Amino acid sequence: MSTTTTTGTPAAVGDDVARVHAALTSRQNRPAEVLFKLALQFCLLVAFAFLIALITFALYKGWHRLDARLWENMPTGRASRAAQAGVQSAITGTLWVIGLTALICLPVGIASAIYLEEYADNTRWYNRLLELNIQNLAGVPSIVFGILGLGLIARVIGLGFTVITAAIVLSLLVLPTVIIASREALRAVPQSIRHASYALGATRWQTIWRQVLPAGVPGMATGAILALSRALGEAAPLILLGAVTFIRFNPDSLLSSYTTLPIQIYNLIKEPQAEFQELAAAAIVLLLVILLLMNSAAIGIRNRFQKRW
Amino acid sequence: MSILSGSNVPAAAVRRGRRRVGERIIEALLVIAAVVSIATTIGIVISLAVPTVEFFGEVSIVEFFTNTQWTALFADKNYGVAPLLVATLWVTAIATLIAVPLGLGAAIYLSEYARPGTRRLLKPILEILAGIPTVVYGFFALTFLNPGLVELWPGATKPEFQNLLVAGIAMGIMIVPTVASLSEDAMSAVPHALREGAYALASTKMQVATRVVVPAALSGIVAAIVLGVSRALGETMIVTIAAGLKTAGIPASPTEGAATMTGYIAGAGQGDLPVDSLDYLTIFAVGATLFAFTFVLNAISIRLVRRFREVYE
Question: In B, which residues are within 8 Å of A139 by CB distance?
């Protein structure tokens, strides 16, 4: 800073300003300050380095198994056939389970969000309980949902270890995520739009269906995709629901046996042969690519369609 | 609607619209959807409680909490939850030790130092870490981190093929985004007037961050940490893959492989345990213990988040 002499103002004042400025600047550049900032950047750097190492390692290890064998062949646990093993039934199983999960959790989640945002009176105890319950449910470990599926849905209700049981359990697991995201999307729609609709004589549901929901769709779609991508990567509850086997056929009904990609990856990791480890890495790359596409879609929708009111 | 009274809007017509049958049916359907989440909680409690009560009918609750051996699936049976609990605490402690400094550092940087453009770029990248499936973390911990850890280990007794330490490290990185994201929210909610006041008193940037922003956002930061700990307690795949399923006595050091509570549940649930057996019931008893822990932690976290929202909003 070269403001030692300033014309137009008395030199003494200019000197003082410069001295104060210099003192403050030098304080901001003290070694401790610089080190602190470096330490903070280091924290982010560690996280990013981990991310890069993880992706690079999976690519490196799975590279020469990333071919048609992966999706054309069925899984096997037999070491002699390791070179021919694939994960086709896991891919179709994942599509079945996640498709059904979307069909179950999106309507229920969005309807709950509409109730909580548009109908519920927040001062009533039961509505507050509902809200607290959703917050708490969001923190319940995923394996506990597996126990719910095992004890209640598979055994007591009797749906067994099937595609539909898996889809119901994953739906309940991501329901809080869908509700919370949809509520935020609905809350972002300004009240003035509702008031205008009411003023034109629309009923409450007409207002919601024709004004509030269309305006909230981008936000809800983003939340829905993120929730489904969580369900897609989830393995823990399905371990308890009979998915941990090498299934050699594609599911063809709601009551089929099934396996999914994350579970198949887990199965392969457990096998000692290097061939299986490489296949696991290849399946991981496939899973990460699907998730990346879903997340990009979510971000794309948010940036393209999100209105600023 | 009180706005309508006194105007010449046909109030009766509006009221008739609101009383339509269709409107009522829709509202009822929405309520039913909302009740699903309550039913889920009740379902979880019932599916845990009934078999757990049955379990404690055969194994005394005192044995469950005082016996130091867990050998449920062996011939000589001991039902002491302590080994599973200690393994869980080791992993959680290691994960917390890693995630808290990294997550807080990242949060302070994003909230106080990064320019808006940088922040918009860095935050989503950090969130990718939270979106990576936990089996992938487990695979990475077992086949990449652990061989490296064994290689670099200074002592004579190297870590085992599967161990609690490496599971804790991977889990620590996994919960960094949880800690960072919620802490950053709390720091961003601190009013700018507080920062400006501190700068006017010639504070440096570090002083503002550490002595003004962090203390002011403390309840939010603690909530973030508690939530991270709760995530770590309930995480299953990383520990199942990287720490193993071995059960016996209390693990003496984190370089040993041992089953955590979630690891035990996943391990026992894979086998075809006969439904009426005591071994099958252990899944639920351990699950109930896990649920109790995370329930308390979540309740604390929800409470703390409410508090910081109330202070500044």
Answer: 227, 230, 294, 297-298, 301
Q: How many CB atoms are located within 10 Å of the residue B219 CB?
A: 18
Where would I find the H helices in chain A? 11-28, 31-62, 68-72, 88-114, 125-137, 142-148, 163-187, 191-199, 204-207, 213-233, 236-239, 261-270, 274-305
What is the DSSP secondary structure assignment for residue B160, as one 8-state letter? P
Helix (H, G, I), strand (E, B) or coil at A80: helix
- Cα-Cα-Cα-Cα torsion A257, A258, A263, A264, nearest 10 degrees, comes to 110
A114-153 tens-digit pLDDT: 999 999 988 889 999 999 999 999 999 999 999 999 989 9
The sign of the dihedral angle between the CA atoms of A136, A137, A138, A140 is: positive
- Closest CA relative to residue B309, chosen from B220, B223, B218: B220
Task: Give the pLDDT confidence of B255-303 residue by residue, as tens digits.
Answer: 899 999 999 999 998 877 788 788 889 999 999 999 999 999 999 988 8
* DSSP structural state of residue A83: G
H or E stretch at A241: none
**Quick check: B139 and A269 in contact, CB under 8 A?**
yes
The interface pTM score, or ipTM, of the predicted complex is 0.89
Of A137, A198, A202, the CB nearest to B40: A137
B37 contacts on A by Cβ (under 8 Å): 112, 130, 133-134, 137, 175-176, 179
Say how far apart CA A16 and CA A21 lie, in whole Å.
8
| Number of Cβ atoms within 10 Å of the Cβ of A282 | 25
